[in-house]
Queue: 2 jobs
Job 1
Amino acid sequence: MNWTLFFLVLSCTFGCAVIFLVTRLCRVQEQLNIIENALKDIQTGNLNRRILTRKNDMTKSICYSINEIAANDQAQLIRLKEAEQAYKRLMTGLSHDVKTPLTSLVGYLEAIQGKVVIGEEKEEYIGVALDKAHHLKDFVEDLFEWVKLDAKEQKFQFEDCDLNELSRDILADWIPALEDRKIGYEISIPETEYILRLDRNAYTRILNNLLQNTLVHSEASNVTVSILENDKQALIIVQDNGKGISPKDLPHIFERLYQCDESRTAGGNGLGLSIVKELVMIHGGKIEADRPPEGGAKFTIVFPKAL
Amino acid sequence: MNDAVIETKQITKVYGEQTAVNRVDLHVRKGRIYGLLGRNGAGKTTIMKMILGLVSITSGEADLFGKNVKGNEKQIYPRIGAIIEMPGFYPNLTGTENLEIFAKLRGTTKPRAVQEALEVVGLPYRDKKTFSKYSLGMKQRLGIANAILHDPELLILDEPTNGLDPIGIAEVRSFIKDLSVERGKTILISSHILSEISLLADDIGIINNGVLLEENSMAALKKKNGKYILLQVSDTAKASLILERKFHTKNYSVQDAHTLHLFDTFLDMAAVNKALMLEDISVISSQLCNDTLEDYFKRVTGGEGIA
């Protein structure tokens, strides 16, 4: 009698265990099917595919890993696509930035050659044509430089030089241009020597581009260049009192080919600041743009002392 | 063209005597935001409900991820996240608890799914506030968090900004944009607000009285609706010279050898034409394009317009 009961309980427990295991197995089987389908889908390029899994699934950690891999690949792919799109924008931008001035240059030259204009007017036409040619030349040079930087092909010669002296030399060349445009300037650079490892050409380019940017875009009447130094780092600050950079544009101004003015008539080409940023980064430094409370725009470069 | 995530073929919904949706062919492409624009009662929600299988399809077919929905529900629906009207949440539980229930039901793709979904929409994790005490905006956000909880490939959002304040609308808009740009999600979104859609969508479908009147990419629509004078002339070089010398404008762009876009639309077109003719430039066509998107929609919807 007791034995019968015992066997009954035993077989019941056994039965339950079997049912439990079979359902677990079925769930795993089902989950494996789902994983297989999803993997096929991911393999054919759908990196958005995710596998859903429940808390008690035996395959949970595998699913999480697959999802993570797909998500990371997806993020990488999106970054690549963005770079590709930037190149596309570069190309469409080129069609405006090159084609329009080139066409109008041809127009001026044809008028001169066809003797439509004579005397003083002819001289004026030649002047305008030359300006346009220069502008195009600058653009092509900028573009070329940027492409070289982007492809990491440019070679740099780093040498120990006195940041203060070098900066003074560069700024000295800007004084006539600033006076020409009746822009006031304040320059505060320490008299002492401050040795940094720099590429002279690249540093010159950085300052030139920042000042050029101020001249062309800021509508400022005053510009301040100051250098602050301690034993860890040097700060180079270029600040103006112009119209400033709108909050909408601020996060983008170092992006290649970003132009605040959508009609692209301001005369810039959207390359200057992105070249600056690349060059600063090559020196191990950082650059930031700001809207200081007193108005205008402020660019701050930080170079670490020990490079 | 097999990157369509949603493709409907002549889907129709008839309620009794009334045809709510009439032979709609919708094409939502992978990784893009598709804006379904229409007035209240135009049939937007019904289309979405049919795609999601929430109402039966009277005739026609809906394909999701290249597969017919019928018979593949179990594989397809886990890959979609949706909010249609007000989602059903338990009023006496907190937002986190509500989402945890959905996570358990549906499964998740990563360990911290609930927390991350809440972060995306800007709601606090493990907050003590119950759903019944949520403001309309918070409820709407929780709905979106629920839709993205399982990291789906496709999001179907029916008027997600309904009842939000202007700042909330801008926030929701920006994270919907991020989901598309940074995570490559495909999004179908409906709205009756034109400005809303025009800021967000890559593609747009205009629906009126259950009929899809137009389906096009936003870029194409914007191109059609720019504000400029389109000039087709025999010689763009000469034409650009005249524009610069006689009309003192540099605000133009050369499209190709015979086409110019002139952005100063206030210029007297007759005078421009005359000046060009006098210089022996034949003007093939000149037309003022200054349709706004709003005008365009009014025309498409037969004068009724969309608010």
Job 2
Amino acid sequence: MAQQRNQREQGTAGVKTGLAEMLKGGVIMDVTTPEQAVIAEQAGAVAVMALERVPADIRAAGGVARMAHPAIVKAINAAVEIPVMAKARIGHFVEAQVLEALEVDYVDESEVLTPADEQYHIDKWNFNVPFVCGARNLGEALRRIAEGAAMIRTKGEPGTGNVVEAVRHLRTVLGEIRRVTAAPAEELGTLAKEFGAPLELVRRVREMGRLPVVHFVAGGIATPADAALMMQLGADGIFVGSGIFKSQNPAAMARAIVRATLHYNDPAVIAEVSESVGQAMAGLEMSTLAQSDRMQERGW
Amino acid sequence: MRIGVLAIQGDVREHRRHLERLGVAALEVRRPAELSGLAGLIMPGGESSTIGMLMTESGLLDALHAKMAEGFPVYGTCAGMILLANHVQGARGASPTWLGGLDVTVARNAYGRQVQSFEADISVSALAPEPVHVVFIRAPRILSAGSAVRVLGELDGEPVLVEQGTILASSFHPELTDDLRIHRYFAAKALRFQEEVAAQPAR
């Protein structure tokens, strides 16, 4: 009896946003080696972000920061079962093509790397691999979604160990969503113009009462309490960049941040997990950062 | 009737929405005590290693294991199926077994990485004739199933929806599309369990 082969559709919006749905409530960790990826997986990370240097080191080294070397991406892909993400420069669609060919599970078009295009982001609809993009406000988030992003992370300020910008950007997006949901229908066009966002997506936000895709936070989360703070404020999940492998005891910090992200409403658990982590990464005060050193300003 | 959704991590919201659209009260479960009074539990998609580790730490794994021994209905989707499988294979050999109870061997991510993830129509005999449109995301593949396992749905001749007693499991995500039939099928299992428990003499 000949069985007809079922039609399979790849790279659909459902498939792209679907993986992000599976990551909710979890922690995604920056890693630079296969060994770090294994530490992250064993600590309970839901995905790893493969890159050459964590943001704190990119900040310290200066120069041009690019996509990770393919050999690093391949080695990390081979080392873990959990999804592997990797960063491409803003607008550098060939880096994204390379990462897709390497079969990473998500591409982060990221302001942590030096932008390759100061006018245009990648046309993300052209890819089968899904994209996550940074945003500081609702308009930026919806512009990225209009370009095909299947997941949003508010930017924060990477590599600082200072959660203040992450809080600012999450509160800004959620506050603007509240403005949209409270607005009568006839005001949506003017709001869309103000945000610089497509009206259709502003309507979707009003219907859903949230971003139309999964909404993580990033940029400055360095302790279990930081992670729980972002979850209590309403994030779907957490990216931790330098906060883990720049801390004194990465395995313990990774585990503690994972547990605090789950039990974000339970201060006793957050206290307990915070005891075991050793010293967090050193932090940077925002006023010591020159305007040109603020990665969050990259992207438009 | 109340059905729980394991809310450690993953697409909890989508399962809750499906249950609520069926008129079933959906409760989030994070702690052992939250299992009481439920007619069944859905374990969502997510990362099985993360969910299994955190379930173990909180005592939820042991508590659920004990309830399943009494016939408590559980439906696992994707990562949830990995948690239910008696044998799990990873790319580098055996992966941990978590709850067990479903006599299958599954291979993690064996339909490929994310770029190979797909949507497809599958035929489910119990829900015929309309096929069910579902999403496979870095899905686990059922390599073999014991004789007590009944295959309900197939993709290209391979099992993707199976049941064993009150356990239901799928490689795919029915919660990411609008079709409620698989959740309705599980809710019927949960209702039977609830009625059996109610019919037992009080101890």
